[in-house]
Design goal:
Elements: H1 3-9, H2 11-18, H3 36-48, H4 52-65, H5 72-86, H6 90-103, H7 109-122, H8 133-148, H9 155-182, H10 186-199, H11 206-219, H12 223-236, H13 241-256
């Protein structure tokens, strides 16, 4: 049986064994040093009983003790990540989850672990104005899922997470651009607003970037750039009332130009 199937098949008997193994309060992974299957079952019982600290200790011990090709190893990393996530240790959880796709790319848990790992990273970047380092890690992890496992049923969820993060990155640049715009630093505003449009064409925040960039162009009388931007905005948002209002003159002028 290949590893992709063993990870789930092996869970059945171990879940039953877990019901009769280990008690919270005197859980010591070293007791099971010679029996990794019993340690897995005991750790799983701790997890199912919401004793995530003890569960993490047991699963972490298994990641050190199990042979590299043991079918329990990817499961141990997965439940280690779940235990760490439940404890609020998002970075440790993300690292445990992504370890599965790195070490066991053919395991059936790999796509699910990448989705979980991306979400753990994303929890550490909750607002666009914060340092986006973990947001970048989350984005890379979701994109890895889509790239490596394009047939996975989890791809739509990963794409939804990618779109959400893309909008956060767009909002981050938009906020900086608007900051310069309010201060009258139009050249700096233009740089950031153009980046929003170029790098995040489908983000929700990009609509406002078009309008704010148009404001900046008009403020310093970059008429040709404003006209080109209106052409692009009308194409990107053909049914948008605000774009039509701001670019109506450009639209009318273009429509009245004789065609040869």
């Amino acid at each position: 049986m290949n590893r992709a199937r063993r990870s789930f098949v092996i869970l059945g008997p171990l879940l039953a064994l877990a019901l009769a193994t280990a008690c919270h309060g005197n859980f010591d992974p070293k007791v099971y040093a010679s029996n990794p299957e019993s340690l897995f079952a005991a750790s799983l019982k701790q997890f199912n009983s919401h004793h995530y600290d003890d569960a993490a200790k047991g699963f972490e011990q298994l990641t050190h003790d199990l042979p590299a090709r043991d079918a329990l190893l990817p499961l141990s990393y997965y439940y280690l990540g779940e235990s760490q996530e439940k404890n609020g240790d998002h970075l440790l959880a993300a690292q445990s989850f992504t370890r599965i796709s790195d070490a066991f790319p053919d395991d059936s848990l790999a796509p699910r672990a990448l989705l979980a790992g991306g979400r753990s990273y994303a929890k550490m970047w909750r607002k666009p104005e914060l340092d986006p380092t973990y947001g970048t890690s989350a984005l890379n992890t979701f994109e890895s899922l889509v790239s490596l496992y394009p047939d996975s049923h989890l791809v739509p969820q990963a794409n939804a997470e990618i779109a959400r993060l893309d909008n956060m990155f767009a909002t981050k640049d938009l906020d900086v651009g608007d900051h310069y715009l309010r201060r009258g630093a139009y050249d700096s505003a233009i740089i950031y607003l153009k980046d929003v449009i170029k790098k995040h064409p489908t983000a929700t925040a990009t609509h406002k970037a078009y309008l704010d960039l148009l404001t900046a162009y008009r403020a310093i009388k970059y008429d040709a750039d404003a006209k080109d931007l209106c052409t692009a905005a009308l194409k990107a948002y053909p049914n948008d009332k605000e774009v039509a209002k701001q670019c109506g003159s450009a639209s009318s002028a273009e429509a009245s130009t004789p065609r040869t």
